[in-house]
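Reply to dn_fold:

You asked what the input looked like. This is it:
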Amino acid sequence: MDAAAIKSNSIHGKINFSKYLFFVPSVLLMLGFFVVPVFYTLYMSFTNSALTGTSSTQFVGLSNYISMFQDTTVWTSMVNTIVFLVGSSLIGQQVIGFLVAYMMKNKNSSFRRVIGALILIGWILPEIIVAFCMITFLAKGGTLNSIAGVLGAKPVEWAFTHPMLSIIIANAWHGTAFSMMIFQAALDDVPGDIEEACIVDGANSFQVLTHITIPYIKGTISTNMMLNTLQTLGVFGLIFTMTGGGPGTKSTTLPIFMYRTAFVNYQLGYGTAISMILLLIGVLLSIFYVKAMKV
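and this is what came back:
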C-alpha cells in the first residue's frame, strides 16, 4: 500500500471517528441520569438499606423479593395498579381520547379549537390541582352529588366509598386530552379517498372504522398505549392527594406502597425492590403492545 492510500485511510478513519463525538454528550447524559440510577436501584433492591439506624448496608440477596411476594399488601397493590391502569389509561384515556378525536374528525376548525381547548384544560393542570378539583367534584356536597340529587339519588362520599373509581375518573380526565391530540394528528393523515371508496363499495361507517381507519393508525395506537401505560404506572401525587391509598389499602397502588415502605417505614431496600417490580411491569407491557400491534 502506497503512502497516499495510507494517508487517505488515516483521514477517513479520523472522519469516521470524529462523527461519533457528537453522540458523547447524549451518551453521558443517558448514563448519568438513566442507566446508572437504574443499576444502582437494582443493587439497592438486594440490600437491607434503611433511612434510619446505625447499621451499615448489607447485601441480603433475594430476601427483599422473597418477603415481597409473601406480603399480601404487595399483591393487593399489584391488583389495584392493574385495575387503575386498565380503567384510567387503556379504557379512559385511550378509548375516550380516540372517540373524541374521531367525532371531531372532519369538523370545522372553529369547533375543533373550542372543544379541544375545553378538553385540554384537564391536561395542562398540574396533578395536585387536578386532585383538588376532583375532590371537590366528588365530595358529598360536590357537583356530582348535586346533579345526582336532582335525579333523586342520595349523596355519596365517592373518595371514601368508591376510592378506586374516584382516582380512575380523575386520571382519565387528566390524561384524555393527550390521547385526543395524538389520535387527531393520526386520523388527519388517513387518506380520505380510501375511506370514500369503501363507502361507495357499500361499507358502513363502522366497517370503515374497523377495517381501514384503525389498521391504518395501529402504530399510533401502540405508541400511545405505551406512553399512557408508563405515565399511569408512575402516577403518585394524584392518588396520594385524593385518597392517600386508602381507606386501608383499597386504592393503594405500587407507587403509593413503595413510598410508604421506603419513606414512611424507612425500609429503603425493600422499597427499591418494589420499584423494580413496577419497572418490570412497564417493560413487559410495552413489549406486549409492540408484539400485539405488530409494529
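The chain has 15 helices and no strands.
Hope that clears it up.
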